[in-house]
Amino acid sequence: MIKKVFAVTLTLVVIACSPVKHAEKTNRKAEISVYAGINKGGITENTDVEQLENTSVDAYSGATQTGVNVGTTVQLPVLKNQVETGLTLMWNPKTMRYNDTYRNYYGTRAINLYQLMIPITYNAGIFRSKYPHGLLQFKIGYLMQFNFLSAKNTGTQLPGYSVNGYSGGPTFGLATTPFALPNGNSIGVFLDVYRGTQIYKDIYNKSTFEEPGSSFLKAGIVYRFKN
Fold first, then answer.
1. 110 - beta bridge partners?
2. Nearest of 113, 111, 112, 136 to residue 123 by alpha carbon
3. What is the mean pLDDT of residues 26-31?
4. Which of 12, 152, 160, 193 has the highest CB neighbour number within 10 Å of its CB?
C-alpha cells in the first residue's frame, strides 16, 4: 500500500510541477470543482458461493443500496489538459444475509461503509472551440480509499469479519460543465466508475477468491469555479 501511495504521489508531483512554467506563458491557472451525487457500490462481495465447500447457493447473499458522495478537487494545467486530485467522502450502505445450514449462520448484517477517497486522474478534453478545457472531459487515473465500517448484526449467529483500512485501483470518468452562470462559474454533470482491491473479508469473501474487491458507480452534479 505504502509503495503504491508513494508512486502515485510522486507521479503527481512530477506532472504538476512541469505545467507551472507552461501555465505562466498561457495564463492558465489551477481550477477548483465541487462534486455531489449518488453512488452504488463500495464492497464487492463474492457471488460464486460454490468456491466454498458445502455451501448452497442461498447460504449467502449481499444487497447494495444507493449512497451519497460529496467532494472537492483541484485541476492543474498540463499542456492542453489537466491533472485532477482532491478529496471525496462517500457513504455506501449494504446488507449481508446469511442462511447457511451447514455452518449454522443465520441472520443479517447491515453495513455502513464510509470512505475518504483521493483520486488522481489525467483529464483530456474534447470540443474546445467554445470551452478552453473541453466541452467533455475524459478522466483516467488511480483512486485511493480509506475505509471506515460500522455493522449491526441481527440473527442467531453470524460469521466473523475483518476490514481493510485501505483499498485502491483504477478509475475512469466523464464530466461536462457546459452551463455558464452569471458569476462566471459553470455547472454540469459527472459519471465515475472504479474497481479496486478488497475491503471486506469473511468466510464467504476470502482473498483467494476471484471476485471480492471494491467498486462503485457514481454520478451527480459538478460545480466548477472560474479560475
1. 95, 152
2. 136
3. 74
4. 12
